Predict the 3D structure of the following.
Amino acid sequence: MISVKFGCSVLVLFFFVTYVKAWEPLKVISFDKWNTGKILNKTEMISVPVHVMLSQTITEPCFSRDQCKDLLNSNSVSAIIPNFYVSGDGQIYAGHGWDSVGVVNFCTSDPKKMMIEISFIGDFENSKFSNKQLRAAQKLLEKGLLTGKLSETYDLFGDWQLIEEDFPMNENNKEIFKTWPHWASDLSQCTLLNDYNDIEDYEFKDYD
């Protein structure tokens, strides 16, 4: 009888801890709290974003604020700053944020349709995302919807769908994202850029 009660208590505790973790508050670190020298050219969003592009920094991962701050300010991270970074410990580092244009929307010819980029810190060609990292990204997207910062009909996709050779992604990771709401498998409307340099030129052309 005691063992049954003990087993039930452990099970209840397990579900409670799982529930609490699922509802941990989203931690967003503002640009000025982590940046030590990068220049952020701000162009205001003129409409609610209709596309969300997932990417990766293709660097070492980071799992603490000090570690991530050092990494994001190093030369190993691209000078192109996304709207948000997601660290291995589930924290969000704001770049352009919700209200400033990061990447130009190359999935439409309409300049009024905006896109945001969420970049996972790490190299995921052969490694998996941490659970905290995935949960944080999902919460960020949910917050975008709840606060009206994202279109209710936004399309979600990964940069590896456009240029696999430059942005290789682990197959298991790809399968995870395919289960997320708003995932877009057909990107025929997007410009198929030839290489990373083309993307850099495309992203910066509004700021020249």
Remarks:
- The radius of gyration is 19 Å.
